[in-house]
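Human:
Focus on the backbone:
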Amino acid sequence: MDFESLSNSRLGIGLALTVSRAMPQAPGYSLARAGARRLAASPDSPLVRAIRTNQWMASGRTLAGPALNEAVRETIEMSGRFLYDIYHLPKDPAALVRMVAVDDVFERFLAETSNGPRVVVGVHLGNFDLVGQALGASGFRAQVLSVADPNGGYQWQNEMRARNGLDMTPVTIESLKRAARRLADGGTVLTGIDRPVPGSEHRPRFFGAPANVPLLHIRLAMRASVPVVVISAMKREDGLYELQASEPLAMTGSVKSADDVLANAERALRVAEELITRSPRQWVMPHAVWPDLQAP
């Protein structure tokens, strides 16, 4: 079993929970650092190749050599820290909220999503999972369109998220119909903006190149005539996670026009680019967003 398969399995999640809850933060972070060095030392692994190209693209194709190698190692280490932070917490919604900066952005986001329909899309930047669950524990209600056909590990994670108020629905025809009804009824739908979808027919430009990122959220928003809000959850120097949320992006044009769909998608992706550029090592996307490109 390779690392990615293990980390997404029930066994892998169970091990992460056990180790994280047993360790104080300093040794937990040290373990993340050691694991990152070990994983980054395998340049031909799919995980390292994907992160390497993603970081290279996020740098404007400027990173190379030892600097790019170090960016890969730092990104994997940050991913380990994020996993430690969420799995270390007890089964207590208040503990999740204490890890988040409950500031004006957080409070305004909660208020605005209760006052009208919208599609919220998250960048896998910082601890998106922890902050999403903290929002749920604080009263945020949304249907979450998650990975289709989730394996045992994903199912376990979805159960954790559901306990904190999120309506987890893997992508299916039926869940998409539910999402459309939810938007029509004034509710909120949440999904990711940057997890690649293999074999995409239409590919919006992301960091200057066509990318296999989803268009599902854009089509949902266009059909329902609702705005899109882009969010992320970067870790601050004080250890708290900070919600960042864009202004609502109005969708324009016709959903029947591929050009209009791509134009709307690229507007949202430009917001994602800006967020990622602020702290690129916290962009912990482990999948190849640009499968046709390879970092040097």
